[in-house]
Amino acid sequence: MNSSQSEKDKNGQFEKDLRLGIMGGVFDPIHIGHLFTAEEARIKFNLHKVIFVPSLQPIHKRNDQITDIKHRLKMTYLATEDNPYFEVSKIEINRPGPSYTIDTVREFRKIYGWQTNIFFITGADAFLEIDTWYKKDELIKLCQFVAATRPGYDLDKLNDNFKKVLKIMEIPALAISSTDIRYRVKNNLNIKYIVLEEVRDYIYKNKLYV
Ligand code: ATP
Ligand code: MG
Q: Is the CATH number of domain 16-152+159-176 3.40.50.620?
């Protein structure tokens, strides 16, 4: 039985009070900051599962600056496969054009039903940019936002509208970023323990970020 089936009731319908976490990201590469944030949100908000959604074409990054989706997707699978509550979705990969969060949330609502409680999980840096997100006012009505604290980003700066819808999750300071990991690989510096072993092996085997 896969995990989607286990969330269905005896009539084959998804539970009405399904609590779904969505963790969007570029995952170039996925690191322990992402994994810890997702697991913490799952526990804290009693989520049935967290779905990792690698973006095909992030709005805020140029296409030639990011690694091919096949590598980012594979690393996301490798990093999440040992957690039965984690899933990976290709929803943004299968949809051509820029990856808008609103479209992703709408698609998940279609799949899981309109009553599903969707928790969109971000880091503080990503939520601080919410003012620039496509159809943000509609988006904040469709899901709850969880923002994990991240060193260097102050959520107090948010305007009250956004503060109201946000659940802030204090996590131990993890000044880990994919940018830093890419820099470390390029400069032959250590990345052990900030990415999972499987991801580290994959990066070296495929000569990523060199
Ligand atoms: P990059 O440096 O390339 O921007 P990143 O480390 O920020 O990479 P993303 O894939 O851009 O990773 O982030 C996906 C989501 O994970 C975002 O919501 C981001 O805020 C969050 N996130 C990333 N790293 C952390 C961290 N160390 N602590 C908390 N949240 C994080
Ligand atoms: Mg980022």
A: yes
Point out which residues pair with 167 in neighbouring strands: 146
- 58 CB under 6 A from ligand 1? no
Residue among 22, 26, 143 to mutate when testing ligand 1 (max atoms within 8 A of CB): 26
Q: Rounded to the nearest whole angstrom, what is the distance from the C-alpha of residue 114 to the centroid of ligand 2?
A: 29
C-alpha distances (whole Å) from 85 to each of 9, 103, 111, 181, 199 are 18, 23, 18, 26, 19
How far is the CA of 164 from the CAs of 21, 74, 155, in angstroms? 19, 36, 12
**pLDDT tens across 76-92, in order?**
999 999 999 999 999 99
pTM exceeds 0.85, yes or no: yes
